[in-house]
Amino acid sequence: MIEIADTIIQGVLLGGLYALFAIGLSITYGVMRLVNIAHGDFLVLAAYLALWPVSQLHLHPFVTIIPIVVLMFCLGYSVQRVILNRTMGPNFLAPMLATFGMSVILRNGLQQVYHSDSRSFQIGDLATDSLHIGDSIAIGVFPLIVFVSALALTFLTSLLFSRTKIGIALRATSDDAETAGLMGIRAKHTYAIALGISFALLAVGGIFAGVRTTFTPESGPASLLYAFEAVVIGGMGSLWGTFTGALILGVAQGLGAKFDAGFGILAGHLVFLAVLLFKPTGLFARTL
Amino acid sequence: MRAKLSYVVSRNSLASNVAVWLGIVAAIAVLSVPWWGSSALMRWAVEVVCYLLLAQMWNLMAGYAGLMSVGIQAFVGIGAYVLFIFAQHLGVHPFLAIPLGGVVAAIAALATSVVVFRMRGGYFAIGTWVLAEVFRIAFSNVATLGGGSGQSLTVMTHIERGARERGVYLIAAATLILVSVAINLLLRSRFGLGLMALRDSEDAAESQGVNVKALKLQVYALSSFGAGLVGAIYFTSIPYLTVRRFRSELGGRRDLHRRGRWNRHGRGTDRRHRHLLRAALGARRLRDLVLARHGRGRRGRHHVRAEWHLGLPPRALGHPTVAAATPARIENARGNGRCRDRVGVAAI
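YS: structure for the whole thing
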């Protein structure tokens, strides 16, 4: 019994990481119906961007988070402004194919520059420190940091959407870009902000993922799938739904892996398919 | 009084007639390759045919029905695994097992459409991808099918090499011609008319009485059938199969060796290969068969590239039969004169 509780706790903590992957995807889908296939590859890119300051300047990986977040925000803003805005329209295929292309370019580009060796970030004792609860449950400090950051960032993002001017602009554009345009909201700028926020959250997720496990230029698609599954399980366009979906996914993977080591990721996929089958709108669907 | 027609229906033009005759000439030329082409040309052509077929299937599905799937590799893989199950484990002649690959892929597509057809647009795309991942993980957990490291289609060695190459080539070429003709005829039929209406506007097609849902399902099953055929044909020409081979044919072929993905034991495949290679190098008699090069290649510092003099592709190093290649077995295979051939080696 206590073992299962332990597995669930570890799953929830893992889900925190997936939430960081997923919230960006949820935002871009909610605001501009963009399915960003390169989402996972940009995540890996963020991790590789942090690699240089960590290995050459010997900075702590956590210190690099802020500059990388800023960098990724700018990158997201420009990608939307320069490339994706030209493809936005009634046809969802065009922006999606554009991101598919970016995904291929990024993966092969990273392969060329960094080779396919797997990399990771070292954070010393922090990686192995844990808090003990009772005799058999130990909570890793690092996974806890990740979880709390995910919680805080989801909270901040939802505040951004509900309270700030830019949040109102984002929601208005999501509802009806044309009418929002009449009110003086520039859709192109708003979309770019949305992708920027998405990339900024990705950057945090990418660096944490690089600390937790290793990454290679090829690890993007797996992250994309987890993020996507979390979004669909939670229901499209709901930030807290996405967060909960990520936790469910993490727990499913944990329980699956407990059953059989090769079964973990499959269990996550199966939960996703089951949600699609029985509640295709997701568990907590509502509009952003 | 003669009623004057206000419009003319023409089903062909000079250009289309010329195109048909050119097509027939091209088809004859393609089918005659085994009588004048080298085996290298045929092997290359089979690969080209496979990509062509896959592209046609994808175009049918995404271009006409608007089903933007990035999971078609699942059906390529199913076709290939069905080929292996029937040919390798149940003793069906490999060439007869190829259509079975297509049929089972189509059935799998219909069965799984219940889930993936709940999504639309971009979400359908990633949903099909997840489905492909499910198939990949599921297959790689089946030990009799070689698990994660794959297996070889050793029954192909029962067919004499020349006949095998010609057979695979002719099947591939005939499939390409048949499929191309069939797609053309299909697009000219009522089915194709509905399909084109669907392509132009889903809502308008629906309102004109096109059963959009059924049509999409049919197209999905049809292109999965084609993808299954491709998988089966592809792996009769390169009779070595792992789950990673069919992971993303759409994104371009990738060498397994280069991937360095993490398997469930927490070790990269590269490292596993290196481990196998080291074991192989340890055996004295193997040393003249294996050439290992350590160096800073563009594939990474620790990359170990092994080239088997036998013509075995590097990725096959992960294969259990290679791991089990004791010197005595290799000598034996050499004695049989099979060792120059990929299939022969895999059959050690």
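YS: worth flagging: The CA atoms of residues 279 and 323 of chain B lie 8 Å apart.
IM: good catch. Also Strands of chain B lie at 151-152, 240-241, 290-294, 304-308.
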